[in-house]
Amino acid sequence: YGLDVDPIEIVKTETRIREKGYGADIFTVRKMNFADVLELSREVGKFDFILADLGVSSMQIDNPERGFTYKAEGPLDLRLDPEKGVSAAERLLEVTKEELAGMFRENSDEPYAEEISQEVFNRFRRGQAVETTTQLKEAIEAALSFIPEKERKEAVKKSCARVFQALRIDVNSEFEVLYAFLEKLPGALKEGGKAAILTFHSGEDRMVKRSFKQLKKQGVYREISEEVIRPSAEECARNSRARSTKMRWAVKA
């Protein structure tokens, strides 16, 4: 079973499955949040193995209409399910300057959170829109104009990545969803069942590490990965987007 909340990617996945001739006995896609894995297990039975990949897919990133990247012009959306909730552009209009700075700090450890938040709200006061990926990138560039020129390009690049990540996490309630998943995960596993979680952000990794350690102490898991597992240099050379990945695993008692 594959769980996804993105209706666009679900259609693509189902098409690929049909083209390969696989039936439902091999692989079934469900439009479900992975936080609902316990509900699925009650319907179909507990699982031998569960893999949670918390990253945005390359297909989502590479589609400029989804607004996941500052590298292409597109609407500032960032929703994993574009049929639900509010876009990142709408979210910017709902929060205060202080809340926005807090979001950048808490969701992505952005060191220039206050400066970027101030610039976004300066633009709003001047009647300028921040509705596209390019407009947000331009606001970040303006906010970091005080950085020496030789260091600025790299600083802007890193801040853009962090700010887009922070907004995506907020718009999709990703930390809340991960917390719910970690609570329900043991109940969806068979005895001796294994779970592996791929994270792409230090906040996510901390949540997974804390949950696994606490539940091992309580006897829920019999074994967990003591250290985080990182991709090899060879894997990163094949797939540059793997660089920030961290994996942790656990075995149900």
Shape: globular
| Low-confidence parts | none
- How many strands in all? 6
Strand order of the largest sheet: 3-4-6-5
Overview of this protein structure:
- The model has no long low-confidence stretch (mean pLDDT 93).
- The chain is built from eleven helices and six strands.
- The chain is globular, with a radius of gyration of 20 Å.
- Strand 1 (2-4), helix 1 (7-20) and strand 2 form a beta-alpha-beta unit.
- The strands form two sheets. It has a four-stranded mixed beta sheet with strand order 3-4-6-5. The chain has a two-stranded parallel ribbon with strand order 1-2.
- Helix 5 (97-108) runs antiparallel to helix 6, helix 7 (133-143) crosses helix 8 (149-171) and helix 9 runs parallel beside helix 10 (202-217).
- The protein is 51% helix and 14% strand.
- The protein has 253 residues and is an alpha/beta fold.
Keywords:
253 residues, alpha/beta, four-stranded mixed beta sheet, two-stranded parallel ribbon, 11 helices
Compact description:
The protein has helices at about 5-20, 35-45, 60, 90-95, 95-110, 115-125, 135-145, 150-170, 175-190, 200-215, 235-240; strands at about 1-5, 30, 45-55, 190-200, 220-225, 245-250. The chain is about 50% helix and about 15% strand. The chain has about 250 residues and is an alpha/beta fold.
List the helices and strands and how they pair.
Layout: E1 2-4, H1 7-20, E2 29-31, H2 37-44, E3 47-53, H3 58-61, H4 88-94, H5 97-108, H6 113-125, H7 133-143, H8 149-171, H9 174-188, E4 189-199, H10 202-217, E5 221-224, H11 233-238, E6 246-252
Helix pairs in contact: 2-9, 5-6, 5-8, 6-7, 7-8, 9-10
